[in-house]
């Protein structure tokens, strides 16, 4: 099927899902806030400050990107949340907020840090756990201007976001199923001479046809370019018998997909096939190692053991795998925990990971097969089934 169709025909095939996953409910968001309160109390803090970005969306449903202006949710361990917000943004913010909260507003010449400090003073609190994704500049100013004791809140943020609910899994499943369909369409519309820019533009249009707002990201590489995990700059043109590597995703209500396919446009040579089969075996070994209670790093070790068996590596040596086996995924493309040596986080139900122990043959080619899995009581489950063969997507 690779190279058997056209751009126009493949776009015409695509349409949004007929039964889209439901949105996260307000009740689930309130449960998240309660869990955050418990974890904040457990770490010895009095309140949690969540800055704009993925975590603010997680707790409040507000899809607001971080900027130089502080927008943040202040959550006391006992009491209702407060949103620190620029005065002129209140209307836009309220239109997206999914939880009820009080608002403390600041004008452009005023200090939002002072509002955080005043709220803490009003509540008689002094220890503030701060979202680790907030900029150093903001956190430094907050500590300097308020005198609050600042604690780093990874234990709270990760303790909530690492473990996905059934509703989150459904949204992630939709995003990944959409992207897999886009991968199939992309492989079919390839032709000799097509450029990486044309393929990227097609993938953007295809994701839109599926109902997404376009690509969350996109990497398209041909031939030698596949040997670089995140690609080479510039425009490449597809030639007969090139390897093709496409890594892309989209968002569904903030939750992301991230799937990679590597295949041959034409006839794969013996070395391409050998490395591709080792990659598939390594991906399968990582999947099989997933078990509740096992450390994340054990999955990385399992993938690398396959490579060493075939004379690749060891460790990060090339030819072999130059990066970790996988990363957590959810509202962020890369988020804790990580399938890498040194990450001893125990696997638990609801954790979601990429599985992508890429093999690089320096300056020649690379093979990355990336699918995503989630942890259940009985082991790992795939969101998307792995690629079956080097000539089948």
TrEMBL record:
- Every copy of the Peptidase M24 domain together lies at 171-377
**Transmembrane regions listed in the UniProt entry:** none
Q: Report the family membership.
A: Belongs to the peptidase M24B family.
Respond yes or no to whether keyword Membrane is given for this record.
no
Report the enzyme's class at the first EC level. hydrolase
List residues of the Creatinase N-terminal domain: 32-162
For the keyword Ribonucleoprotein, the answer is: no
GO biological process terms on file: proteolysis
Would you tell me the protein name for this molecule?
Xaa-Pro dipeptidase
Q: What is its EC number?
A: 3.4.13.9
**UniProt GO molecular function:** metal ion binding; metallopeptidase activity; proline dipeptidase activity
Q: Which residues form a coiled coil?
A: none
Q: Which UniProt keywords apply?
A: Dipeptidase, Hydrolase, Metal-binding, Metalloprotease, Protease
Highest taxon of source: Bacteria
């Amino acid at each position: 099927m690779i190279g058997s169709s056209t751009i126009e025909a493949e776009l015409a095939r695509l349409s949004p899902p007929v039964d889209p996953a439901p949105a996260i409910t307000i009740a689930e968001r309130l449960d998240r806030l309660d869990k955050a309160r418990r974890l904040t109390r457990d770490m010895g803090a009095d309140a949690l400050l969540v800055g704009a970005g993925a975590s603010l969306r997680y707790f409040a449903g507000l899809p607001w990107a971080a900027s130089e202006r502080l927008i943040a949710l202040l959550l006391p361990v006992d009491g209702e949340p407060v949103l620190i917000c620029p005065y002129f943004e209140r209307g836009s913010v309220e239109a997206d907020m999914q939880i009820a909260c009080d608002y403390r507003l600041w004008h452009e010449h005023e200090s939002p840090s002072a509002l955080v400090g005043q709220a803490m003073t009003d509540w008689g609190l002094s220890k503030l756990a701060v979202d680790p994704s907030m900029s150093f500049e903001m956190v430094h100013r907050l500590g300097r201007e308020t005198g609050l004791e600042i604690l780093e809140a990874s234990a709270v943020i990760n303790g909530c976001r690492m473990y996905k609910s059934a509703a989150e899994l459904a949204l992630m499943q939709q995003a990944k199923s959409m992207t897999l369909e886009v991968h199939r369409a992309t492989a079919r519309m390839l032709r000799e001479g097509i450029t990486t820019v044309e393929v990227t533009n097609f993938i953007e249009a295809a994701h839109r046809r599926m109902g997404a707002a376009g690509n969350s990201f996109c990497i398209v590489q041909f031939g030698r370019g596949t040997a670089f995990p995140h690609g080479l700059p510039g425009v490449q043109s597809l030639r007969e018998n090139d390897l093709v590597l496409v890594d892309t995703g989209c968002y569904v209500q903030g939750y992301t997909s991230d799937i990679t396919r590597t295949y041959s446009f034409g006839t794969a040579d013996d070395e391409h096939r050998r490395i591709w089969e080792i990659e598939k075996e390594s991906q399968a070994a990582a999947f099989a190692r997933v078990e509740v209670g096992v450390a994340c790093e054990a999955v990385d070790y399992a993938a690398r053991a396959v490579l060493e068996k075939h004379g690749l590596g060891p460790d990060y040596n090339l030819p072999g795998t130059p990066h970790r086996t996988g990363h957590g995924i959810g509202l962020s493309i890369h988020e804790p925990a990580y399938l890498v040596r040194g990450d001893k986080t125990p696997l638990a139900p609801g954790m979601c990971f990429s599985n992508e122990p890429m093999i690089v043959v320096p300056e020649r080619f690379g093979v990355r097969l990336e699918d995503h899995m989630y942890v259940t009581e009985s082991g790992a489950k795939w969101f998307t089934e792995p690629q079956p063969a080097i000539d089948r997507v």
